[in-house]
Amino acid sequence: MATLLLQTAGAAVGTAIGGPLGAVLGRAAGAFAGNLVDQKIFGRDKVIQGPRLDQAHILSSADGAAMPRIYGRVRIGGQIIWATRFEEVTTSRKSGGKGAPSGPTVREYSYFANFAVGLCEGPVSAISRIWADGVEIDQTRFEIRFYKGDEDQQVDPLIAGKQGETNAPAFRGTAYVVFEGFPLQDFGNRIPQFTFEVLRSVSRLDRSLRAVCIIPGATEFGYHPDQVRRIAEPGKSGFVNRNCLTRESDWHASLDELQALCPNLETVALIVPWFATDLRAGECSIVPGVEHPASGIRRAGLERQRHFPRQRASGQPL
């Protein structure tokens, strides 16, 4: 209302002062002033609501469904065996700013799920990769706990916290995975269809191993426990020692799987090779090798630029 009144008044004043051009300027100034007044009077408590769930959508779960028994490495689905109501998180923000009048409040809703997925008959050795709606997920981004299905496994702390220590099931004999606070925004605010790569060792040899050697020693950062990022060019980079989505680095992922498959392992030896610079014995030197010359690392008292550069094919070291 104030916009219309001040727009008309501004046009009249502008016409009296500056003719047609003044009318245009006066109308614009009146409309701007009127909009400010309307925002102060009518737009102060205006709230714009984002989409909000009215019901939860979860994976199908059937009472009495068969519990599979696996051997080796198998990709399987699962059944929801425990879940809570979705957690709703409300985020409010004000539009406008930088001298503009304050706009309405925008209220958005995010949803998170707590649930457990039963996989198969236990005990199993480990769980490797996880897919959600057919796409492998980065397990380091989520709170995920895995239970092998031992007959003496303990109750998950989340389940115990929700149901109480005396009422919480431990699902002994069942291998299962617990997701805590799993964000649903990227999956249409529903629990996606999960599949899991499960490992179960069936060889007595695995349980008898006491010592192993880790290879390949030719890798430059394969033994590094932390992520190492290589910047190929401005704006283009990538990890050189992370080729999996299960742990922070290939080193941690490999050791976790090794310990799961060989539970009685006691000793690990690292293979660290050097490289020959020439096939002719008289001209050959044995020196450390490097994949990427540009770095500040020193080995055996030698600057990195003096190390033997490994041959490359298609941009990758051989």
Main attributes of the structure:
six-stranded mixed β-sheet, 22 strands, alpha+beta, 318 residues, flat, 32% strand, 20% helix, four-stranded antiparallel β-sheet
Q: How much beta, percentage-wise?
A: 25-35%
Average pLDDT, all residues: 79
Helical run tally? 4
Rg result: 32 Å
Written as H for each helix and E for each strand, in order along the chain, the element string is HEEEEEEEEHEEHEEEHEEEEEEEEE
Percent of residues in helices comes to: 10-25%
SSE inventory with pairings:
Blueprint: H1 2-42, E1 47-49, E2 72-76, E3 79-83, E4 87-94, E5 105-121, E6 126-132, E7 135-136, E8 143-147, H2 157-163, E9 174-183, E10 194-200, H3 204-208, E11 211-214, E12 229-233, E13 236-239, H4 250-261, E14 267-270, E15 275-276, E16 286-287, E17 289-290, E18 298-299, E19 302-303, E20 308-309, E21 312-313, E22 316-317
Parallel strand pairs: 1-5, 11-14, 17-20
Antiparallel strand pairs: 2-10, 3-5, 4-5, 5-9, 6-7, 6-10, 8-9, 12-13, 15-16, 18-19, 21-22
Can you give a write-up of this model?
This protein has 318 residues and is an alpha+beta fold. It has 4 helices and 22 strands. Among the domains are: 41 residues; 131 residues, no CATH class. β18 and β19 form a beta hairpin. It starts with a helix and ends with a strand.
